[in-house]
Amino acid sequence: MQSFWEEERKNYKEYESIRNDMRASVCVIGGGLTGITTAYYLSKYTNVVLLERDRICSHTSGRNTGKVTSQHGVFYKYLIDSQGKEFAKKYLEANQKAIENISEIVQNEKIDCDFERENSYVFTTRETDVDVLKKEKKSIDKLEKNLCTYVTKTDLPMEIAGAIEFKNQAKIHPVKYGYGLAKCITKNNSRIFENSQVTDIKKSNGKDEIYVNKNKVTADYVVMATRYPFIKIPGYYFLKMYQSTSYAIVADVKRELFDGMYINCEVPNMSFRVINKDGKKLLLAVGFDYKTGTEELKNGYTRLETAIRKMYPDAEVLYKWSAEDCISLDKIPYIGDFSVTMPNVYVATGFNKWGITSSNVAANIIADKILGKENEYEDLFKARRVEPIKNRVEVGNMLKEANKSILMSRFKIPKDEIDDIKIGEGKIIEIDNKKVGVYKANTGEIFKVKPICTHLGCELYFNNIDKTWECPCHGSKFSYDGKSIEVPSNKNLEWLVLGCGLWK
Is residue 279 part of a domain? Predict the structure, then answer.
């Protein structure tokens, strides 16, 4: 389902796919906001080639909240407790600076992207959580005075128990912003290629060769900005993070809306902000996260609609979509050197649902490293840090989930047959002594795939809400007919030819 933001892409030209071998100083893989921003900074100084598997500003970059904020939920007390006050202070500084960087880019490049300053709030409706917010406020005050205020009333049409108000944050149209940056990149004699999926990176004569669409790009430096790295080893990022899916809806509420951007501190998590369409104000609501690929999928769209109609009974839903985010085990992004065995390859991932400010932080750090400049925030986000892997509980849970899924794929025998599958439903069944992922379309057409993730071999679940095959191990997603649509997998599912026992 296309997001509200992605609809804007119809107003922009599609970039051509790569057709020839090329040489570049820097190759950026991934056309989301991280890749585009990195290419933007570097294109001022050197030649850049950016490769995107679909269209730029797709996936999470075109499906987020558009919030530009250093307010990252209830986070800074955790950061002080786990990393220390100085670390937390620099993390806050980096994200505050990112807000100003984005503001300057919009102004200097004259990008029409609905950039607007607005206060941001983390709130609770429960008295039991008031103490959590007050402790968070005290923690933030230790890092920067006068950044936030504790309040007991907001513009939301609901009673709250308390909230922390962050001053002078911002919101943006992420797709308009991304395309504005892309225009600047091409003006700087660098190139963008869409529908150009990278399949491998190899070293040859001291240079990196990036293989894509039967062609290759030879580069001095590579930036992997694919949200989740598609290279398994080295790096081992599949041991250091997982993916989480959130639901989003846009609604016309038929009445005056509120000022400010909001996120609650309870579980389930919900976020609210106002967006503009043709001069009309609409409500954007996001929330009801789940770990991608989990068996028990709850209908977040319905739950969001229910929550909205408690505030606005006449709300009319106009858009629905879901988005996937990488969650690092220590809640800190990985930015910098990809692996000791892959010099001059850089990565940015694990943004924990705060991708717009994190994309700018990452772009600045990586651009500075490539250009040989010092960056005061580089050490905060070291991609090669091993601390998250030392979290035995989290790593153990991830490995347990992976082993369970792999064992299921080999030993658990499904009982359902094709006749048991309803129209619009997907299931794993047994056909010709093989496990088969089957989806029945509304047209009656039947799609059959091998339900094994092409990343590391975990058995997939079918999400009957979004009509996607999902991996519980590392969050790869595939369309109902097997097309790879979300990393880390970059290969389609195999098709089954019935009656001959062969995989096509």
Answer: yes
Q: Is 261 part of any domain?
A: yes
Secondary element (H or E) of residue 496:
strand 496-497
Residues 231 and 355 in one domain: yes
Domain residues for the domain of 286 are: 243-328
- Residue 243 tokens read as 């993916």
The token pair at 49 is 């080639």
d(CA 154, CA 348): 35
Distance, C-alpha 472 to centroid of its chain = 16
- Which residues, 6+ apart, have CB-to-CB distance to 180 below 8 Å? 106, 109, 111, 112, 113
Q: Which two tokens stand for residue 234?
A: 């080295």
Residues 421 and 381 in one domain: no
The helix/strand/coil state of 287 is strand
Give the CATH number, domain containing residue 475. Answer: 2.102.10.10
Q: Which amino acid is at 207?
A: K
Buried/exposed 243-252: b ≥16 CB within 10 Å, e otherwise: bbbbbbbbbb
pLDDT average, residue stretch 103-132? 97
The greatest distance separating any two alpha carbons of the chain, rounded to the nearest whole angstrom, comes to: 70
d(CA 460, CA 145): 48
Burial class (CB in 10 A: 0-12, 13-18, 19+), 340: exposed
Q: How confident is the model at residue 407 (pLDDT cuts 50, 70, 90)?
A: low
Looking at the structure of the chain, the number of domains it has is 3
| Among 397, 392, 431, residue whose Cα is nearest residue 414 | 431
pLDDT score at 502 = 40
Amino acid at 376: E
The residue type found at 302 is: T
Three-state DSSP class for residue 132: helix
HEC per residue, 245-280? EEEEEEEECCCCCCCCEEEECCCCCEEEEEEEECCE
**Nearest-angstrom CA–CA distance, 329 and 349:** 12
Six-digit token pair at 278? 């043709």
Q: In whole angstroms, what is the distance from residue 142 CA to residue 449 CA? A: 54
Q: Taking Cα atoms as reference points, which of 27, 78, 3 lies closest to residue 328?
A: 78
- Name the more confident of 394 and 435: 435
Q: Are residues 50 and 191 in the same domain?
A: yes
CB burial of 405-429 (b: ≥16 within 10 Å; e: otherwise) equals bbebbeeeebeeeeeebeeeebbbb
How far CA 386 is from CA of 81, 235, 401, in Å, comes to 19, 11, 21
Q: Residue 268, preceding bond cis, omega within 30 degrees? A: yes
CB–CB of 401/391 below 8 Å?
no
What is the average pLDDT value for the chain, to the nearest integer?
Answer: 90
DSSP single-letter state for residue 59: G
Distance, CA of 120 to CA of 246 (rounded, Å): 20
Count other C-beta atoms under 10 Å from residue 8's C-beta. Answer: 18
